């Protein structure tokens, strides 16, 4: 079965940079569009009078709206009650369920990523898995809201997921015990060698401030001295553009962070350093940013800014490649339009649309025995039906993986497990920083 992405669902799995907007700027309908509207109305009338069963207006109008937006790009959509509620949950809520970030792909529920430490993560659910059944009941073809509603439930109850995992011939059943999911956009730990590790799991409200607070806590735990910092953006599907700018500004002292360019002047904006935070809060500290194919949108803004300004070394896998900005346009009290209104560009003028952010050092996730297989089936922005084309142009070779074996990355997952390494990418970044001096490559500024 081949699944083709058609929608990155807005809510817990959003890979968009949302901007508040009003309806005041809606364009006027052009006069020459009237014949097309007449055609639409004629079809509406014919369906109402001739379809085999009666159809209500709500069904027909909603179908027309969804079809209209689906013809534009994979990220534009109409949001009403349940969809807006899930978006609010992503920003500042908690819920009882599995702790999964999911999206719809051609009628199938695909796992974007399990939240770190969630019941789904602990049960072994992985990014890229397709959930086909819940407690033996087929959910293929359901709306995303219906599927999510069935996965949620009281903490302490069990649910069995039937999973199709690309790269494996047979499906597998995974039983997960639901829990209370409290969204933690920022987590941190102090690794050996006084290396700080800050993981940003999503770009919700106050992420910039939370990372700043995490850095202060790490310094206190390390008795005032840190010898390196890892900013982990893996499996981070994005979120608020403003928070991506704030996070980047923490580590930059000058220059542009990102620009967004749309059709109108009000959709074209330039974001500069030193507008949210003054100075580099980690000045002189060697820094590595970890990314993978699940790092999208806001994550790519941060990685691209720090890479272009040579403030950090970027490691991991090529990112998702979503270089467009979605604005949230309110329609009524409980509905809104999520519409692609601009493209964004890194400080050097790169558009990451389709191509993504290429790491300075590609580091495969060797500790995952299925990583190589899943990489072959990994889907990025360039695979989405109707995605925006990079107007600058991407060479084919830039989208191809290097097939040559790297002598540094030959250990198997089993061999790494024997050494106690369960996250090879993070371990490699930490070992790199421990070898770092003030003149080494990890200190890019």
Key descriptive features of the protein:
seven-stranded mixed β-sheet; Pdz3 Domain; alpha/beta; 25% strand; 2-enoyl-CoA Hydratase, Chain A, domain 1; 26% helix; 11 helices; 445 residues
Structural write-up:
The chain is of the alpha/beta class. It has two domains: 82-182, Pdz3 Domain; 186-434, 2-enoyl-CoA Hydratase, Chain A, domain 1. The protein is 26% helix and 25% strand. It contains eleven helices and 21 strands. It has helices at 34-50, 57-70, 81-92, 119-123, 144-151, 207-221, 241-250, 298-308, 371-376, 413-418, 424-434; strands at 17-20, 77-80, 94-97, 100-105, 108-114, 130-134, 137-138, 158-164, 172-177, 179-182, 186-191, 195-200, 228-232, 239-240, 256-262, 269-272, 287-291, 313-316, 324-332, 335-345, 361-362. The strands form four sheets. Strands 1, 2, 14, 15, 16, 19 and 20 form a seven-stranded mixed beta sheet that branches. Strand 11 (186-191) and strand 12 form a beta hairpin. Helix 7 packs parallel to helix 8. The chain starts with 16 loop residues before the first strand and ends in an 11-residue tail after the last helix. Mean pLDDT is 81; it is low at 1-29 and 397-402.
């Amino acid at each position: 079965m081949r699944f083709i992405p058609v929608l990155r669902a807005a809510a817990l799995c959003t890979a968009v940079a949302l901007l508040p907007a009003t309806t005041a700027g809606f364009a006027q309908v052009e006069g020459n569009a009237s014949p097309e509207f007449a055609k639409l109305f004629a079809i509406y009338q014919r369906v109402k009078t001739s379809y085999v069963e009666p159809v209500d207006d709500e069904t027909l109008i909603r179908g027309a709206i969804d079809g209209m937006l689906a013809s534009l790009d994979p990220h534009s959509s109409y949001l009403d009650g349940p969809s807006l509620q899930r978006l609010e949950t992503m920003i500042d809520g908690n819920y009882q369920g599995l702790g999964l970030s999911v999206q719809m792909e051609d009628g199938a529920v695909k796992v974007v990523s399990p939240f770190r430490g969630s019941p789904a993560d602990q049960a072994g659910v992985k990014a890229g898995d397709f959930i086909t059944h819940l407690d033996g009941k087929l959910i293929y073809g359901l709306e995303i809201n219906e599927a999510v509603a069935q996965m949620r439930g009281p903490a302490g109850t069990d649910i069995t997921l039937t999973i199709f995992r690309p790269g494996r011939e047979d499906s597998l059943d995974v039983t997960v015990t639901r829990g209370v999911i409290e969204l933690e956009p920022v987590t941190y730990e102090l690794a050996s060698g006084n290396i700080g590790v800050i993981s940003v799991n999503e770009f919700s409200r106050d992420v910039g401030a939370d990372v700043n607070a995490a850095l202060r806590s790490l310094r206190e735990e390390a008795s005032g001295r840190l010898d390196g910092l890892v900013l982990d953006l893996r499996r981070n599907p994005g979120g608020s553009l403003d928070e991506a700018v704030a996070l980047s500004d923490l580590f930059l002292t000058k220059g542009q962070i990102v620009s967004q360019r749309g059709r109108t002047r009000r959709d074209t904006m330039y974001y500069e350093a030193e507008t949210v935070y003054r100075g580099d809060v980690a000045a002189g500290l060697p820094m590595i940013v970890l990314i993978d194919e699940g790092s999208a949108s806001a994550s790519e803004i941060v990685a691209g800014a720090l890479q272009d300004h040579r403030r950090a070394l970027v490691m991991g896998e090529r990112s998702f490649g979503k270089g467009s900005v979605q604005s949230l346009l309110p329609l009524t009290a409980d509905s809104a339009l999520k519409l692609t209104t601009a493209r964004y560009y890194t400080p050097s003028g790169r558009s990451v649309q389709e191509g993504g952010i290429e790491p300075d050092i590609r580091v495969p996730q060797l500790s995952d025995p299925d990583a190589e297989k899943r990489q072959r089936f990994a889907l990025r922005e360039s695979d989405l039906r109707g995605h925006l084309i990079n107007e600058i142009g991407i060479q084919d070779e830039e989208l191809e993986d290097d097939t040559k074996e790297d002598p540094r990355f030959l250990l198997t997952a089993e061999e790494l497990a024997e050494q106690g390494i369960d996250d090879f990418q993070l371990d490699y970044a930490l070992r790199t920083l421990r070898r770092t001096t003030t003149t080494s490559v990890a200190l890019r500024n």
